[in-house]
Design a protein that fits this description.
Elements (H helix, E strand, L loop, with lengths): L3 H45 L1 H5 L10 H16 L9 H16 L1 H4 L11 H14 L4 E6 L14 H10 L6 E8 L2 E9 L4 H7 L37 E7 H6 L1
Antiparallel strand pairs: 1-4, 2-3, 3-4
The structure holds heme C.
Length: 256
């Protein structure tokens, strides 16, 4: 039998603990939100600068080191109409660092005048960032995925969590946050951000009529292989464009 006084103590203890847990969740959610928006800004910057990435013999310093970060910050401000997030969590620092390192890894390719299309697009860039973070043992993962029926790269196939989230939001795409998920079998927070479908997406994922390689050609000469060498999937502007799936292990968030 618990005495009334003891019950009060337990109740207060319980309230304090739930309050702390709620505060912790708000903090974690803020971090993953910032990470998502920083990544989305870099994605926009990379899409907008496909010409610069693929052109011959140009000054490409905008794509490297601090200049690259500065451009992502500018893109962020324009995109979200707010200041770039504060440098107050290790996860954000490590992400920016990985972004610069991935561009550095691709430097020879980016400056190679013989290769017309360099293949540095948001999907591959996200993949390389995640690979880099994984080799450093950092529990932060960023990937592109879509419903399983038309996946270009099998490595982008959705996992169980992503499949169920997409099923839930496919008819009304919106950001989905889950504070009690798993990553590599460990407790993690996860966020799925749907990608808005735009005419740019269709130049690769759309129909042969959308393919710039077919411009000024007669229909019998059209190809259904896009500039990146993949077969086009015939998506239309009204289709679901998949999304960016970001996961952070809780132990990594708590350590820092
Ligand atoms: C220049 C061609 C190109 C453009 C433009 C492009 N993509 Fe992709 N996309 C690719 C390639 C290539 C892959 C596979 C990358 C890889 O190997 O991981 C891919 C992968 C994806 C994936 C992961 C699932 C899969 O099939 O592998 C999604 C989701 C996706 N793209 C959505 C989009 C959306 C939405 C847009 C427009 C905002 C877009 N893409 C624009 C070429 C493109």
């Amino acid at each position: 039998m618990v005495y009334p006084k003891k019950r009060w103590v337990l109740l207060i203890l319980y309230l304090v603990m739930s309050f702390q847990a709620a505060a912790e969740n708000i903090k974690m959610k803020a971090v993953i939100n910032d990470i998502t928006k920083i990544y989305m800004s870099s994605m926009t910057y990379i899409f907008l600068n496909q010409a610069l990435i693929n052109q011959q013999a140009k000054d490409k310093t905008n794509l490297f080191s601090q200049k690259f970060i500065d451009n992502i910050k500018l893109t962020y401000r324009a995109k979200y109409n707010e200041e770039f997030p504060k440098d107050n969590h290790f996860a954000k620092k490590i992400l920016l660092q990985a972004m610069v390192e991935v561009m550095e890894d691709n430097k020879a390719l980016i400056y190679d005048d013989d290769i017309g299309f360099k293949g540095i697009i948001p999907a591959t860039y996200a993949f390389q960032i995640s690979a880099k973070l994984a080799t450093k043992g950092i529990g932060l993962k960023i990937r592109f995925t879509r419903t399983a029926e038309s996946i270009r790269n099998k490595l982008n196939s959705p996992d169980v969590w992503e499949k169920s989230i997409m099923q839930e939001i496919i008819n009304a795409p919106q950001i989905y946050y889950d504070e009690n998920a798993l990553l590599n079998g460990k407790p993690a927070i996860r966020q799925f951000t749907p990608l808005p479908m735009t005419p740019v997406c269709l130049t690769c994922h759309g129909t042969p009529a959308d393919n710039p390689l077919n411009a000024n050609k007669n229909k019998p000469q059209w190809t259904d292989i896009d500039i990146s060498g993949f077969k086009m999937e015939n998506w239309t502007i009204n289709d679901f464009g998949g999304g960016v799936s970001i996961s952070i292990e809780k132990s990594f968030l708590e350590q820092h």
